[in-house]
Amino acid sequence: MLRYIALRAALALAVAFTVSLAAFLLLNVAGDPAQAIAGEDATPDVIEAIRDRYGLDRPLPVRYFDWLGGVLQGDFGTSYYWHKPVAELVADRADETITLALSALSVTIIIALPLGALAALNPNSWIDRFALGVAVSAQAVPNFWLGLIMIILFGVMMPIFPVSGDSTWKHFVLPAFVLGASSVPAVMRLTRTGLIEVMGADYIRTARSKGFRGWPLLRRHAMRNALLPVISVLAVQLGQKFGGSVITESIFAINGLGRLALESILGMDIPTVQMLIFVFAIVFVAMNLLADILNAALDPRIRIG
Amino acid sequence: MQQFRWRHLGAASALALATAISPAFAGPSDDTLRAAMSEEILNLDYNYTTKREYIILAQLTDATLFNIDPETQEVLPSIATSYEFFDETTLDVTLRDDVKFHDGSKLTPADVAYTYNWIKDERSESNAAGVVRRWLDTAEVTGENTLRFHLASVYPLVIRDMAARIMIRKDGTYDAGGEVDRDAMAQDLIATGPYKVASFEPGTELVLERNEDYFGEKPAIGTIVVRNIPDIGTQQAEMMSGGLDWMFKVPLDLAQSLGATPLATHLSGNDLRVGFLVLDSHGYTDPEGPLTNVKVRQAINHALNKPEMAEYLIGGSSEAIHTACHPAQFGCDTSVTDYPYDPEKARALLAEAGYEDGFTLPLWAYRDKAAAEAIAADLTAVGIDVDLRYVKLQSLNQARAAREIPAYFGTWGSGGTADTAAIARIHFDMESDRNMSGDQALADEILSAEQTVDQEERKEIYSSALGKIADEALWAPLFTYSANYLVSPELDFPLDPDGLPRLQNSSWK
Amino acid sequence: MSLLDIQNLDVTLALPNGPLKAVRDVTLTLEPGESLGIVGESGSGKSMTALALMRLLPRSATCEAEALRFDGQELRDLGDPAFARQIAGPRIGMIFQEPMTSLNPVYTIGRQMTEATVARGLLSEAEARRKAIDLLDRVGIPDPEGRMNQFPHQMSGGQRQRVMIAMTLMLDPELLIADEPTTALDVTVQAQILDLLDDLRRERGMGLILISHDLAVVAERTDRVAVMYLGEMVEQGTAQEVLYHPQHDYTKALLAAIPRLDGPARVPAQEAAAPEVEKVISATNLCREFHSRKGLFGPKKTVRALDDVSLELRRGETLAVIGESGSGKSTLARILLGLDLPDAGDVRMLGRPVLDLPGAERASLVQPVFQDPYTSLNPRRRLSEIISRPLVLRGEGDSASRLAAVKDAMEKVRLPGRLIHAYPSQLSGGQRQRVAIARALITEPEALICDEPTSALDVSVQAQILELLDDLRAKMGLTCLIITHDMAVVHEIADRVAVMYQGRVVEEGSASAVLDHPSNDYTARLLAAAPRFGATRDLEVVQ
Amino acid sequence: MSTTDITLTAVEDSETTPLTPGQIFRQRLFGHTGFLIGASIILAIVVVAIFAPLIAPHDPYVQSLSTRMLPPVWSEGGSWEHLLGTDQNGRDYLSRLIYGTRVSITIGIGAATVGLMIGVTLGVMAGYFGGWIDHAISFLLTAQLALPGLLLAMALVFIIGPSIWVVIGIVGVLHWTYYLVVTRAATQRIRNLDFVAAAKASGASSRQIIWHEILPNLASSIIVIFTFELGIAILAESSLSFLGVGIQPPIPSWGLMIAEGKQAMFYRPWLVVLPGICLFLLVIGANLMGDGLRDITSPEGRNE
Questions:
Q1: Is-contact D21 D301, C-beta < 8 A?
Q2: pTM for this structure?
């Protein structure tokens, strides 16, 4: 067990370093950070001042290895904008993104699982068609467009929910719906096909031959088997959502990692971008690992082999 | 089951839909002005920032030695009561004796001297360093409330810089005990202005309270809350649901539409910012390129329908210009050659220059997409095939520094300084990459205008320089900008001609 | 009064291209304690009849009958919930063909055994658990206590089938239906399960319906036998009547097609195997190990598939390799074909080591024929492309000559010419296996290596393929190595035989010598499990 | 062995040979309502894209600043001259929507193909060879998922310059993972089937096996993914344009139009709603086609 986790941790670090190197190069190619920080009306001398304050005139390899050296001692550098350690910056904003990710995930679960199960239990019925309709249309709605429509509907016409900010839980309802809705199709489809497959399995036929029908049959035999593939997909999606959704967070002015990523990329705040990439890579791999562990916990064939 | 535990946590928050809440009403009821800014406010010390948002906040939190009357451009007393040039390079300033910092401590000449000397000091790396180093030698305390500035050279804009750029800090703020801390005032600012910082959450919200023992005229409104809302759409929603009282940098269409509703009033004041095309007349990108030919540059000027752009795309007080400066700036001579909108003449000029079937022109732009597209369309109409490159500011600056840009749509706000020096120098100085004409004589002439204190002489220099720029059509000046604001109906927000918003002068109706 | 009385049962399946009558007008009766065998090939409707009785038909099937009486009670009057509560489980129990998937993989054996009785409130948790342990012991599961909290995947196929039987008996049914219970098991295990079923029937005075495609196996162990063909009950009678004087032509043909030990002996190709006869393939001291990880986190596990195996295939002979699953016979075949490299030992073809032979040359020496007709042909290619592929790979001849070669090969394997442009999905199992053989022969290889070529086919089709292989061998002087698990097949076609057990060759010799007096007791057990028609049921093992 | 006179092969040679896979595929294709609806939407949009110059009432690039931001004809102030009003630069909104189909369709097909090329090659390589190649490719997969797409887009748009081909390349490079995962699993399954072993035994090289035996069997699942990726690519382009790093003005792209309309969305909601609906229609058409194809090509089919 530990060997497996150690392997995954090594993979996460390897990915994190490679991707952060790629991001470092891409950012420096895409523009001059000093200009971005200085802003629109900066005179050349101001830009020079910023350039030597952050050592941006040093050659790329020197800057990268300097950053790398810091990372090895746990210091991810300070943000060019916020003038405070990047680790602290990411930590403050992590809780908004986690809350958003978890509530978005629960939106997905609340919509996708029952819909998928109902569609599987009575194939070709109107529920099945309706479920397919929801999946196909939810997949076709652009994320940012849904966000704007939500603001128009709930923010202004029927001001039930606040439109921006992240102070109270009410602020998270609309964004959670927008973020959650985007992953409903995949989860619903998986639940549906999973359950159809399980209902056709031999052991279900054995259970029916012992007189089990309807809900007891579903609960005692089908549910756990059908949920196996869904659990791993949900875990992976949670990983992506922890990465924060760039668009949802900026539309709803939620101070999460997604918005931080957008602004630090557009503003060329290199240390923040690299730290974020580090966090995303590790969270992503950790979520895959969690999916494996959950699968092992639920499925003895994997656990005991 | 175990793995569904985190699901219940999320479900609780998503399910509670029912309760309707009334939006928190700002405005006169709690004497709080809620302002929105899309740029993130991260550092309150204007000595270490440059963006426009920080200039606005500095008006509220800081006081400077002098103030410039936006109407008459006349110098008014502020922290300093008077000044006198002992000789061309020595300036004596007397201070008021009743100015207090926000923490109650009394302002002394030593604080002022320290601030100027620190900014000039190598270690400061302050954004204002460039300005101060251009004219200051040293500042020394000469009396109980007087100090003397030794100037390194003759510079006409010393008082103007003192009024706009340098914010006074207590003695030893940045290098207490020898250890340099440039971010000392970034979060908990101690200054002398009409408002003091009540609470500050970087990137989210800044709360300012009226400074009761402010030496000058106390502002009418008790509290100002500045909220960071990146998305303009979201800002609108907050304004409509009463969550905001003041919005600036509002796009014209939005300002007009929301202004028409009873929920908000649209104010449009003028702005020192001007928009222009800079053309690679020197031929950095292509020595024999079309832009090196004056006729082509003149054709470009004729091709652009500037009046329509000003009226429809910028709106408010925006008007077309033909000078490489803002008409309201000192020394900006509007009698220079003008190239009125005349597509036929533009095609004729192109033909004369040997480009009957036109040429492809990569045009870079970083803001005002509608205007950039309008420019591209006007040029295409006369046969110039425009490849519009609409990129982020830092990408444009980097490409310009690498001399890859033949023409770009630039803007300049002169930092609110109503003097042609604030725009001419940076765009025609030989070292600046914004200078695409590479004309040494022109550069020297412009520099000379900043080396004399005699305003009449400066005026003549600028007239001749601007005349040359216009004749050679080094630029294609476009229009002045107009500042569009959206304010709540209960707020009275006076606008100043220099376009700098002064929230401290606002009050409830 | 008969335990079970089915009159004129019809089952129709609604398939995309029109309705199909799977069961036509079947009448069936069973007395209490009596055992009935239903025999038929795939598609004969034997399973459908049982599923109709248990109401387990697929959603798209409809079934009508004049009478469906069980112990005097007309089942059709019962609603689905009532049927589930009263009949399914306590009155009629059923076990299925695939033991590997018939138990729920994520729950322990104990829970699956006890849940039916506890849910119905017949027994308390503790009583049910004790009963389960007794039943597991009765069906021959070692250490039943420990097995209760194990999972299905930790047991062998045979053990799982035993658990299935025990689980069904938990509810003490009066009738037990076994739908091809042993088809997926090894021959030796097969015999034990069938004996167990028979003993339990007598012990509990239970009715038993044993459904199988293997007439010989069923006939030996049931009182009466019914034969089904294309959905109809073509013959019904006591085991003796059906076996020794069958009425219906189909039953006769079926009996003739079954390979059996006491059938006519094979004429050996050439008696004196002269020493200098050329060795087409010779393998010496082959060893091969496979490493697998037990579960995601478990320790590594190594399995010795081949343990110092030496074997020779001489020109013109048919060598049979017999052994059960896990004996390493398939691994041997892949190594001899050059598809897999041994850890130790070497393989030579006509004296030259396989390693130095380039692919194309090796192809002209030896060609494979695999077990499963459904995966041995590329579904996306037409027959002409499949059969001519080896020639294309060798770059031999042009399209015209290749087409001729294909036609010639199709004739050799007796495939109708019009199928030349058909796709595999349009052919039956037997036809596909003929295509595989045609493909193997197109390059006129020295030897054919067939890995259980007929075990996935119906008995009648199997007979044709074996006959075809024998003809080809005679006409083309082909050398064959045939891998099988059925001693009767060895008896019918093999000159020499090698018996493999757990990766080692335990016995080798001429077919007649090994079959008449086996020296190794494992071979003897294999022989005992193979059906003999002559003897009556109480046959002793020849020692 | 005596052969009885009744040749059992009679059962084998029944005259009516069942349908070829191709015929079955076509039969189920035209029977699947979902697929037909989707295909007709896509077809309609492709026709509009091809004949845009004829259909569009005005040239989408011609500006008239004086008549900018006109409302559509049904709300007051609208005119029949510009059915759906005009945009910020006074260009006819309906024409821009119509020309927008060209951008979306080219990007959709282009990006999905780029994704297919990368994803399928890597998937087959990882699936067939396994071993360290498989590990290297899954490392690449994880790294790709961790790198924010926005960053890659911004850098590439700056380096190479903003043309439709660059956007196609970016969206394609960001969306090959779905192909990889599916083809890798399918290749691993097919690699162990007997007909591949038979091909190997007849001397086929790995390349020949992949080309001749494995790829044809992947064709149906690749087509299904392609139709889904079509929708995803179109949405991705619109998101990138929405963030300002996708299609460059003045080319009309629906994502860009939504971004531009966003500012005045409370008073001129049609500037946001109309392109949104077009995007929605196009993508829902692609998804319905994808769903239909998947039901038809999957072995058990949807109706069993």
A1: no
A2: 0.79
